[in-house]
Amino acid sequence: MAATVRRQRPRRLACWALMAVLLADLLALSDTLAVMSVDLGSESMKVAIVKPGVPMEIVLNKESRRKTPVTVTLKENERFFGDSAASMAIKNPKATLRYFQHLLGKQEGNPHVALYRARFPEHELGFDPQRQTVHFQISPQLQFSPEEVLGMVLNYSRSLAEDFAEQPIKDAVITVPAFFNQAERRAVLQAARMAGLKVLQLINDNTATALSYGVFRRKDINTTAQNVMFYDMGSGSTVCTIVTYQTVKTKEAGMQPQLQIRGVGFDRTLGGLEMELRLREHLARLFNKQRKGQGAKDVRENPRAMAKLLREANRLKTVLSANADHMAQIEGLMDDVDFKAKVTRAEFEELCADLFERVPGPVQQALQSAEMNLDEVEQVILVGGATRVPKVQEVLLKAVGKEELGKNINADEAAAMGAVYQAAALSKAFKVKPFVVRDAVIYPILVEFTREVEEEPGVRSLKHNKRVLFSRMGPYPQRKVITFNRYNHDFNFHINYGDLGFLGPEDLRVFGSQNLTTVKLKGVGESFKKYPDYESKGIKAHFNLDESGVLSLIRVESVFETLVEDSPEEESTLTKLGNTISSLFGGGTTPDTKENGTDTVQEEEESPAEGSKDEPGEQAELKEEAEAPVEDTSPPPPTEPKEAAVPEEEKATEKENEEKPEAQKPVVYRALVTRSGF
């Protein structure tokens, strides 16, 4: 009996060892399951996570609060974040950085840079000649760009999420204002890379809010379109969004709810911060008036005193939202002198009268971009902390003409919850109920190029052409292809923003340069020399506007076509040759990426823009790609152009030719073109 037990013991040990290995694998797998979202506001941020057993939970910071100040204090050997940094703003205002997101993607001459200097004169902004941007000069040896400071904040948010989830987290969805342009979005992505985060998507905060609203009201969405307006006034800006909810039929999951962004209006500088700055200035005047005749210095010249006044102004604004008056008081404001003054709500509203007049502006912009009127909007919902100011609600209610304003959403956490739902949908570790999201392009993007034409025999002139790639309020993500039909040599084209007439003069100055980049193509002439007897099908440039709203030029290729006799032997040889070339140069398909609630765009052709009609046969063809195989997008080496496989658009022609073995069959060759500048 004892011998039998000894013989079985190694088997038991082996089983236990195998179970231990499997358990270790499961634990290692679980470490990669959690995802996070960061709702990055001007004043504070909210972090949310999803992990097994914890669906959509707001992360508590070290002070057990649900929102964390976006504040950083930088010293020679120390860094403080969140509430710790906010408490040091009074002791060391120069080293405490706030509201730095307003400087992302801005050149030194941008009006927002001048506005930041006026609002926070204690910060020294240096000039970076290489990037033509600004940086914070903390000390002669210590300087940081706004992107680096944001990277520190994102890294801190990641540490909060990891402590809360008790496991490492890399995947994240980050919210950005809907009005962010390409430079600002790329700046956020750069900051996330510094923080070691893998950004699944930059989602517009208004879209995230709309998604959160729809997810929790899924049963109320049906085939009848429902138009809802979200009015979001935060600390730094205001965005008004019109969203249409309805169920649509999808290929994968049948009837599913969908939200579509129909109209967007915004004001970059209208928010709670500007109201607090007005109150701070009012309190500074009162303090100077109290000390008049004592030979005292102006309180505005003392950064610590102004930091105290700004903190008191923030508190005062909150209290006056619920009370008719309140006593502002600061102990030891300056030179050990206490400050105490009564401020009424009427005085506050008078100080901000011009700001309240701007409240209806984003509403009108949103209606205009959506081509709708207020009668078509069923409900207006308030989002953002500054909408709690009674005067804002009063002016907005009058502007929209509704009986009441909707307050049935968490004004502070809706965007964070919508973003973390999208993070779970984009992650491969979770399966969520589909919710189709169709976001909209705010700033149109077009391609401009100049071509030499012969209007009369012997008379040649230059002709400027424009082609709209992504129109205003068009859906994204999507891919498009533009074909240049009249070039047989190297040439350049420009990628610019389109018509920005909907922006005011000041917004245009803040927007900056309307030129995104200039693309220089090389190898076009060489490809024509390599295939002199083949028919050119043009030079095709493939563009992608991804889920984050970031534009990229995937590849440029010169396409040629020729006809060959279609015999069984030749067909077999050509098929093998095509398959070989396809495998060598990335022509094969890759697994389709998960839609994650994003609607795909059907292929279609667009007509040329007005004022840019070409002669017959000279039009630059513009097509959208949808559900096409993804080819190798790595930049081609600057060597001799290479051939590629037969493209998708030729499949229909091939099928017809297969039915006629005696007919000629077209074969397409693609020569990759090198480009620079994008």
From TrEMBL:
It is found in: Endoplasmic reticulum lumen. SUPFAM superfamilies: Actin-like ATPase domain (SSF53067). Residues 611-626, 640-663 have a biased composition (Basic and acidic residues). InterPro entries: ATPase_NBD, Heat_shock_70_CS, HSP70_peptide-bd_sf, Hsp_70_fam. Residues 1-34 form the signal peptide. Residues 565-678 are annotated as: Disordered. Residues 574-583 have a biased composition (Polar residues). Keywords: ATP-binding, Chaperone, Endoplasmic reticulum, Nucleotide-binding, Signal. It comes from the Eukaryota. Belongs to the heat shock protein 70 family. PANTHER family: HSC70CB, ISOFORM G-RELATED, HYPOXIA UP-REGULATED PROTEIN 1. This is Hypoxia up-regulated protein 1. The gene is HYOU1.
